[in-house]
Amino acid sequence: MTTEDGERASGTGGVDGDPVEVGVELLAKAEDAELSLAEAMDRVEAVSTAPTVVREILDTAEMRGVIEREDGVVAVAGGGGYVSQTTDVVRRDGDYDCRRCGTGLATGHFVQLDAGELGPFGSECVRKVTGRDD
Question: Which among 37, 70, 80, 88 is least surrounded, fewest beta carbons within 10 Å?
């Protein structure tokens, strides 16, 4: 089911794959050993803004040992690798809106994960979502 703007009713439009799996993998590929809760939420909300999906992503990541949450800090377990801007991000020309900020785009950046594809993002937002820019 989609809303008028084409986003899935679950708030996960722009995710090709299971949004929970995509979100868990995105957290696992964080380069920093620790993220503030706000930074972790920014990344997870790039996958879905639906509170139940966000909660499921965080709970699943914690249950699998991908993250540990304590006192507003999210510790990321090592070994998940990172998202490479050259090999894991694909650029496509077209008429897009950034998933993170809503800006109109002529070129969309799509993050390729094993669990699925996430995007489109603008050049700055894809760096923020993947942890390559603060």
Answer: 70
